[in-house]
Write a structure and sequence with these properties.
Layout lengths: L14 H6 L3 H17 L3 H26 L1 H6 L6 H4 L4 H20 L3 H19 L8 H16 L10 H19 L3 H6 L5 H5 L1 H21 L7 H18 L5 H22 L1
Helix pairs in contact: 2-3, 2-14, 3-6, 3-7, 6-7, 7-8, 8-9, 9-12, 9-14, 12-13, 12-14, 13-14
């Protein structure tokens, strides 16, 4: 009787590589933003933890989905910072992780209530649609605007009475999301064009996209300062002026400076959103 063939070794999965493939910094930033919103809105420790867990699961699913979809393009452009492209993590493991995180995201989102859960899952679905199709179209900005715009609704709809957030807060978050999209593309714009990605920033070019990113983030700050009822405080006018000066001073600069300027202004908008939510 012939001996059985030797068992094939199982593919190993690097935990560090799997973590890096989920886009950990943006995932952590959005999760902390959502947790801050929940705490500021009075969701309490349990509600804040639930919000953070649902958003973290959604962000993990989106990040892993993004790297899996971009695998061929990342290999073509020689991305050594991508664990999938270097072979450190098997594609099947990232696919499984993305769907597992999505499966966890659904019940965690719905645990906040049907309206809140529907708002968050719509945003997660928009992010998946970006990865799978819309990234290479002129509507590439739309999933970002929709997902960010719905994040305050996920928080407030989980409160007693399920109130919607004020329109100025929803608008500010949506503008911030769209601005983040234009800014986020800037460092990789040349690689995107080389591999056939034709989203709106790639169609408009680096200079126009940097200017649009700055205008969108400035518009977000303006809504946060001017939108709430009551007179604008000197602090609000000063913050708006400083945001404008920061964006104006970095918009035409070379290299990654426009990207960093928009990101710094966006961070200021996030803090302002949290402050407005608390009041």
């Amino acid at each position: 009787m012939p001996a059985p063939p030797p068992a094939l070794p199982l593919p190993t999965v690097s935990a560090g590589g799997l973590l890096r493939a989920c886009h950990p910094l943006p995932a952590a930033a959005v999760t902390l933003f959502a947790a801050g919103l929940a705490a500021a809105a009075g969701r309490g420790p349990a509600g804040t933890a639930l919000t953070a867990g649902a958003v973290a699961a959604g962000q993990l699913s989106v990040g892993w989905c993004n790297d899996r979809v971009d695998l061929r393009r990342d290999r073509d452009t020689g991305r050594r910072d991508k664990p999938l492209a270097t072979g450190e993590v098997p594609a099947a493991a990232v696919t499984a992780a993305a769907f597992a995180a999505l499966a966890v995201c659904v019940p965690l989102s719905l645990a906040a209530g049907p309206a809140a859960g529907a708002a968050h899952l719509t945003g997660v679905a928009a992010a998946w649609a970006y990865n799978l199709r819309l990234k290479g179209t002129a509507a590439s900005w739309l999933p970002y605007a929709l997902a960010f715009g719905l994040l305050p609704a996920f928080v407030t709809l989980g409160l007693p009475g399920s109130p919607w957030p004020p329109p100025w807060l929803t608008g500010a978050a949506a503008l911030l999301g769209a601005g983040a999209h234009f800014a986020n593309v800037l460092p990789d714009l040349a690689d995107d064009l080389a591999t056939g990605v034709r989203g709106l920033p790639q169609r408009l070019g680096a200079r126009t996209s940097a200017a649009l990113a700055a205008l969108l983030v400035l518009g977000s700050a303006a809504l946060l300062v001017l939108g709430p009822p009551g007179p604008v405080t000197p602090y609000g006018w000063t913050l708006l002026a400083l945001t404008g000066l920061l964006l104006l001073g970095t918009a035409g600069a070379p290299g990654r400076i426009p990207f960093l300027g928009v990101m710094a202004a966006a961070a200021g908008d996030v803090l302002l959103i949290l402050a407005r939510s608390a009041t």
